[in-house]
Input
Amino acid sequence: MRNKLIKVHWVLSSQFGIDVKHFMQSVAALPRFFRDRSRFREQYGGSLSTVPCLHDWYATAGAAESEYFVQDLLVARWIHEANPRRHVDVGSRIDGLVAHVASFREIEVFDVRPMSVEIPGVTFKQADLMQPVESAAAPAGGYCDSLSCLHAIEHFGLGRYGDPIDAQGYERGIASMARLVAPGGRFYLSTPIGRERVEFNANRVFDPRTIIRCAEQQELRLHELTVISAGGAVDRQRQSDESLLRLADADYNLGVFVFDKASPT
Output
């Protein structure tokens, strides 16, 4: 029941602009608002307009427990430590990972959505990664030695962001991105994991073994799997069949996969 209520709240607030939680908080805050305004008026004789910000009283100093916040910071630190020759991102948050990385190095961004502003340190190209990127056609040596795609592959093919409907979109996306990574390069991929399902047209939730299997078909080998659970807890997983089965039986976690592209033998 709790999960159903959370989903209903998400749909009402994010898709229809009806945030029941904020509404109830704002109503509850009205007595305090009028009391505080009266006290301030007693101390201040100048012009005073009223712009209520009622539910902010319930906010913390920041949303550091968000899985987006945690993954973006975590992967940006890994990229900084690795110091690759060329880093490319596909579909991650511009105001998250991309901004973090652009603060210390150049980054190229491919996204099916347009971007109307220029950002220092960011080279942007609109592209559908369910298809090979023609202008970044990878020669035998690959296009980049480092690539990220955070919280995006689960949307491929569901039409949410204007992308074509394609039930195998995530497989095509992984194949296309793997093609860009040079042998010996690294691929950072995050996506919801748990009991495998499609929540149309929001996202997929993958059995983690599905992601690993698709990656292995493209000569990508799992280097590390980190799981971010509710509240932002970070757990670096042991690579075992038992741990993957446990993650596949869970309802939801965020899996941050780090793959290495096999070098030619």
Remarks:
- The mean pLDDT is 92.
- Helices lie at 2-16, 20-43, 67-82, 94-102, 169-180, 208-216, 241-249.
- The longest helix spans residues 20-43.
